């Protein structure tokens, strides 16, 4: 569409359109409303926070001491606002550069690990979902339609999924021990084996993931082909990730789930009881509710272990998960390990002044019998503070100017807070004050 055509549609002059495109004029409310009416674009699409993640990514690039460059926060903002595609390309190149450096270091080490094939593909998949704000409309909507066709009832979906596999694809479901596997599909025999150790919600999810490959295999293949993944391992992981996404959307259909979430004010325990699935599954699904026109609270979702390793991270917000130097030890997700099974909350403020409301709780999975090691994770779910009043967990908490705010950072190596006593690494690119005749409460005091 030309500027003149757009101007006529919006009832403004072509010169005004030109100024809008070059950030020479502000986007007024009447023009914004006409844009949303004619093009079906959410007003939040034009909000400044839409580039918050990109700003954080670019800042991390220039915080890398090996890059050898320096750029002010103002220049970062200007780059991401005026040239967002250039900024994204810069971030992508830096990630490939860092991965190459890590791969070389691994290859010359005595460990003998091939990071390229063992770890990098998982990061590729996480980045793919991250760039899509953890919402895949091409799978979410078909999954919702299929849930209607199968007449799935919340809390009783396992029987409906098994019937769907049998009636639509001739697949029989058998529950029997299968070693350490949770499920195994024999395509030749058309038999899906389920482990008896699976809880009802877990079994339903495994049925749904195989049904996803049978029902939406072509769409999944197309998404994988368009994803430009690095190799066969990444492509296989992408197929699994997309099948799991479809499964989540099938077990927890969008409009039904969003309606219940709003009705219960995002009470995860009540949602878990209502739909018969676990705490982590509910949290993960809540982070995907970003369908245009019917959006839920935009959440960030994270799963972390006691050592600080992030095994899952998805975001529909501007919150940025750092890859440099780990995550912030002041973050509430680590506090959850001190209160197993209890939901803890936090109002957190990032160095740029943005405030988020976070809740976290541990989940534990037993594997095998007595004496066998289990798995314990902390699940974190966060949203911008302006959405917090929609959550039942904010009741009774001060959320305004008198809120009890915890200052956190994206990770010690890129954190801009010089006076943090919990810092685990010195900030990249910053000069330290090193004086043999002076001691400090700060582990890495900056040069003032």
From TrEMBL:
Database matches in InterPro entries: Cro/C1-type_HTH, HTH_RamB, IrrE_HExxH, Lambda_DNA-bd_dom_sf, ScfR_C, TransReg_Diox_bact_type
Domain of life, per lineage: Bacteria
Pfam families per record: HTH_3, Peptidase_M78, ScfRs
Keyword Aminoacyl-tRNA synthetase belongs to the record: no
Gene Ontology MF, one: DNA-binding transcription factor activity
CDD domains the record matches: HTH_XRE
GO cellular component, one term: cytosol
Keyword terms: DNA-binding, Transcription, Transcription regulation
Entry keyword annotation includes NADP: no
Protein family per UniProt: Belongs to the short-chain fatty acyl-CoA assimilation regulator (ScfR) family.
Protein name as it appears in the record: Uncharacterized protein
Species assigned in the record: Prauserella marina
């Amino acid at each position: 569409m030309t500027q003149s055509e757009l101007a006529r549609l919006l009832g403004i002059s072509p010169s005004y359109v030109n100024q809008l495109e070059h950030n020479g004029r502000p986007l007024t409310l009447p023009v914004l409303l006409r844009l949303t009416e004619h093009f079906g674009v959410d007003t939040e699409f034009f909000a400044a926070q839409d580039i918050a993640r990109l700003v954080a990514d670019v800042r991390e690039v220039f915080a890398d001491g090996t890059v050898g460059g320096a750029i002010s926060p103002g220049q970062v903002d200007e780059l991401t606002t005026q040239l967002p595609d250039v900024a994204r390309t810069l971030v992508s190149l830096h990630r490939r550069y860092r991965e190459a450096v890590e791969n070389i270091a691994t290859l010359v080490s005595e460990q003998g690990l091939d990071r390229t094939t063992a770890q990098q593909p998982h990061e590729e998949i996480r980045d793919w979902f991250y760039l899509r704000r953890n919402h895949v409309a091409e799978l979410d909507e078909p999954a919702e339609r299929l849930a209607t066709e199968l007449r799935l009832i919340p809390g009783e979906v396992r029987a409906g999924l098994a019937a769907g596999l049998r009636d639509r694809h001739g697949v029989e479901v058998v529950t029997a021990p299968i070693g350490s596997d949770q499920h195994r599909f024999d395509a030749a025999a058309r038999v899906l084996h389920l482990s008896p150790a699976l809880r009802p919600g877990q079994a339903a999810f495994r049925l749904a993931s195989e049904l996803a490959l049978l029902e939406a295999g072509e769409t999944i293949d197309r998404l994988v082909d368009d994803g430009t993944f690095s190799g066969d391992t990444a492509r296989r992981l992408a197929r699994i990730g997309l099948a799991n996404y479809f499964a989540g959307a099938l077990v927890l259909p969008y409009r039904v789930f969003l309606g219940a979430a709003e009705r219960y004010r995002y009470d995860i325990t009540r949602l878990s009881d209502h739909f018969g699935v676990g705490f982590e599954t509910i949290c993960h699904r809540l982070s995907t509710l970003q369908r245009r026109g019917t959006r839920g609270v935009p959440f960030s979702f994270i799963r972390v272990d006691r050592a600080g390793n992030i095994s899952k991270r998805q975001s529909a917000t501007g919150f940025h998960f750092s890859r440099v130097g780990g995550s912030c030890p002041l973050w509430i997700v680590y506090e959850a390990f001190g209160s197993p099974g209890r939901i803890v909350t936090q109002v957190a403020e990032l160095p740029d002044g943005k405030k988020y409301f976070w809740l976290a709780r541990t989940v534990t999975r037993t594997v095998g019998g007595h004496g066998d090691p289990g798995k314990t994770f902390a699940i974190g779910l966060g949203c911008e503070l302006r959405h917090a009043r929609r959550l039942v967990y904010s009741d009774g908490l001060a959320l305004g100017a008198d809120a009890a705010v915890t200052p956190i950072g994206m990770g010690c190596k890129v954190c801009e807070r010089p006076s943090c006593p919990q810092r685990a690494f010195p900030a990249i690119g910053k000069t330290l004050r090193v004086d043999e005749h002076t001691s400090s409460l700060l582990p890495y005091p900056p040069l003032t």
